[in-house]
């Protein structure tokens, strides 16, 4: 019952955010409502090409940490909630980033409502080795948004494009988004 | 006595039913999820330009593996027709897709279905496969079209670029340079 009320609050909040924070643009997605059991989170890097990826990994975490939300993302070497990695992902043609989460249905959170650990996020170096630092950030800040509980969002106008836009061609090449937007921050504040 | 036997048989039957249903439910619950950041949506011209081979084939059995923590499915495909590009040099190939039967993966292409016929834009799979037949990935995870009702239905990863349906002639003509 508490969960239903909470979900209703999230939905209502999402509607209000859509109405007042990003007026005139139709929302195509909302936060999943799945979340970690605490906003005080730890990440670990498992970076092979440290020269090119360690700095963007740290900055991606820092961009979420610096939002006006309860989220903290501190680096650790053990006991991380999220592992940030770079790799050539030969099975992921067409994708520059990926997140693997443990059991749980992100879209509707019918069970396993609170994540604790076990998330892996990757850059796919097949593509990202050719990206600038800012474009690498655009991918990882997006993936960390998923880790925190945000779903995809698609808008036509760059004024409304979120870090949760699924396509890098739109999110970064067209709209130069590489940090959480005001709407992303509002969604995070609804679920934590 | 007869009634008692029927009652016991019913109870045992019910237990089996409950067991079967319980198991079905457990199997349908995903244990892992994948969510992706897509580079771009591919046009047919992109698919043609980036693929080494375009074929028509029939999907067969599949196996699932975890490759460097990533759940992956390998499906055997019997090649029915070479449409464009290089030849596979084999009658059978394996198609590698992200995900698996217990993985929820809404951003990626649905796994090829045993017995269905497809037109596929392919690139070589660059990691090692356990199988003896050559392995390929679907170009951009969007170069896959299932034969249905005399035409083709797009069955790749969600796209804002590619139409949902093609006539057989038009897709084959566009697949060729
Ligand atoms: Zn995504």
From TrEMBL, chain A:
One cellular component term from this protein's GO annotations in UniProt: extracellular matrix
Keywords, sorted A to Z: Hydrolase, Metal-binding, Protease, Signal, Zinc
Gene Ontology biological-process entries: proteolysis
Source organism, top-level taxon: Bacteria
One GO molecular-function entry: metalloendopeptidase activity
Lineage, uppermost ranks: Bacteria, Bacillati, Actinomycetota, Actinomycetes, Pseudonocardiales
Domain Peptidase M10 metallopeptidase: 121-192
Protein name according to UniProt: Peptidase M10 metallopeptidase domain-containing protein
Gene3D superfamilies documented for this protein: Collagenase (Catalytic Domain)
InterPro entries per UniProt: MetalloPept_cat_dom_sf, Pept_M10_metallopeptidase
Stretch forming the signal peptide: 1-29
Organism: Actinophytocola algeriensis
Automatic annotation (TrEMBL), chain B:
Position of the signal peptide: 1-20
Keywords, ordered alphabetically: Signal
Protein's recorded name: Lipoprotein
